Amino acid sequence: xxxxxxxxxRRGPWLEEEDERLVKFVTLLGERRWDSLARVSGLxxxxxxxxxxxxxxxNPSLKCGPMSQEEEIIIFQLHALWGNKWSxxxxxxxxxxxxxxxxxxxxxxxxxxxxxNYDKIIDWRGNKGEELLHKHKETEIMWTRTKTREHGFDExxxxxxxxxxxxxxxxxxxxxETERFGVMNSPxxxxxxxxISKSDANIFEDHSSSSTDNNININVGSWWFQEIMDFEExxxxxxx
DNA sequence: AATGGCCCCAACCGCCGTTTC
DNA sequence: AGAAACGGCGGTTGGGGCCAT
Length: 240
Description:
Blueprint: H1 5-8, H2 16-29, H3 34-41, H4 47-58, H5 69-82, H6 86-91, H7 98-115, H8 118-122, H9 127-179, H10 187-199, E1 216-220, E2 223-228, H11 231-237
Antiparallel strand pairs: 1-2
The chain binds a DNA duplex (21 and 21 nucleotides) through residues 11-14, 32-35, 47-49, 51-53, 55-57, 84-87, 98-100, 102-104, 106-108.
GO molecular function, one term: DNA-binding transcription factor activity
Pfam families: Myb_DNA-binding
Domain Myb-like: 6-58, 59-109
């Protein structure tokens, strides 16, 4: 009698040797085609299960240890804006997974939120909010610096534009809702939204016409950035 | 020491959008 | 163009560990 393939698949907690094998094959084949990877590796696991194990546990870029107070506040703030968009929130917390954040919210923050005065925690007029804004700014600068070095200016601009417009336009829509409940909008979001509305579809376009290697003109809607040596300065201009 | 209740989190499930053939 | 495969996401579950009694 033929058995269904699924019957042969293992479920439940992963063994150490399974982890080792998975790490080996992900290193070899990359983080994609999980079904093929599962087959080729000989692991009696579904591709989905392999992906999940890697993404949520084995990936070396994951951050271990408890959530910091700063991370906690970011989760509070972003959850207020986006709701249960765990993957979106996770993107703003390097090294943390959507699953981690989801679990953390359910076990820690939800109770806290119910117990405490929520508005006080996410009020960006407080010092903590300003501190976090600076942290976020630093993260953005590091990102643009690395990307520019690795992929060049054009690719970085394209990616930056997409990255921020997608998540923050979405944020823009939710803010109207949250404001009704007295939730403060962060200076960061205000600035991004303002920036997007001014720039619309023209962000970073037209820089080639009169640019040189070290001197490029960048059109952001009605604004022009001149003599910009490094892309990070464009990013900086958002915050200053 | 035994046990029951609670908490935490890894893993699973089902759905849906995207990509590939 | 359409079907199948794949990947991502949010919700849920179950088992292990901790703690109070």
